[in-house]
């Protein structure tokens, strides 16, 4: 009997801190006895240095996903800041519209599992615009009806954006300078977390059986797999 093809993984946001960590995390499974799904990184522009197959998509054009090979699961690590985006509308276009476009395209193509990188404080009823958009994106993905949806809500990411060619986030840099020396005294739900921890937590949680929707706060992400 021929082997059953291993379902593909879509990864959106591979150029970011958690996205790059996910590339490494998913790649560490290679060589194990259990078949590992190949990864397809969805990109807005070419990135020849990525160690996986890539596909160019337009997040504002859902039709650009139609020709992609069907995934079994999808990891979504898209995100920006209002300062980088330039306006609230541009921020929402990434953190809500693009996220939902990827998730909906994956679901329509047959994906059964989805992992989303959200943020601490995400709440669709929040008075804070950033948190509200993040919460609305979570709710929109829940409504798509994945068999399993894992949502990560990390606190401040402790990673080096410059090494990825990303613009500096000054507020983030100052916060890290203040918090790193006393990280051990900060409650786990609030202390900075590395992108690698977030990526590992998402991969392990999505691979498990469990509730249709599971939310992992930063404290849980710190210990998944330990």
Explained architecture:
The chain is α/β, with parallel strands linked by helices and 226 residues long. The chain has one domain: Rossmann fold. It is 35% helix and 16% strand. The protein has seven helices and seven strands. It has helices at 17-27, 82-85, 88-108, 129-142, 170-179, 195-207, 218-223; strands at 8-12, 39-43, 53-56, 71-76, 113-117, 148-153, 213-217. It has a seven-stranded parallel β-sheet, sandwiched between helices. Strand 1, helix 1 (17-27) and strand 2 form a beta-alpha-beta unit. The longest helix has 21 residues, at 88-108. It is globular, with a radius of gyration of 17 Å. The chain starts with 7 loop residues before the first strand and ends with a helix. The model has no long low-confidence stretch (mean pLDDT 86). InterPro entries: NAD(P)-bd_dom_sf.
* pLDDT < 50 stretches: none
- Count of alpha/pi helices: 7
Q: Please give the CATH architecture.
A: 3-Layer(aba) Sandwich
Span between N and C termini?
38 Å
Strand fraction equals: 15-25%
CATH topology name: Rossmann fold
Structural class: alpha/beta
How many domains? The number is 1
InterPro entries: NAD(P)-bd_dom_sf
